């Protein structure tokens, strides 16, 4: 066993949580936008049941991001 393997790993720091959540949200939005662009439904868990969400009901995250960017520039 090398000396690196015997060292305790650095614990998760709560200060990283906003960065992790932002990355997670961006990943989910990208995946949903990709499904919408390719006219594919997604499956979600809602009220204790599996529900299929058709592409026309998936929020348009690409448009929302463009709107936010426009607001920042104004």
In short:
The protein has about 70 residues and is of the alpha+beta class.
Structural description of this entry:
- The protein has 74 residues and is of the alpha+beta class.
- The chain has helices spanning 3-6, 17-37, 61-73; strands at residues 42-46, 49-53.
- The longest helix has 21 residues, at 17-37.
Give the key terms.
74 residues; alpha+beta; single chain; 2 strands; two-stranded antiparallel ribbon
Radius of gyration: 19 Å
* Percent in helix: 40-55%
Percentage beta strand:
5-15%
Please identify the structural class as seen in this structure: alpha+beta
What's the structural blueprint in terms of helices and strands?
Blueprint: H1 3-6, H2 17-37, E1 42-46, E2 49-53, H3 61-73
Antiparallel strand pairs: 1-2
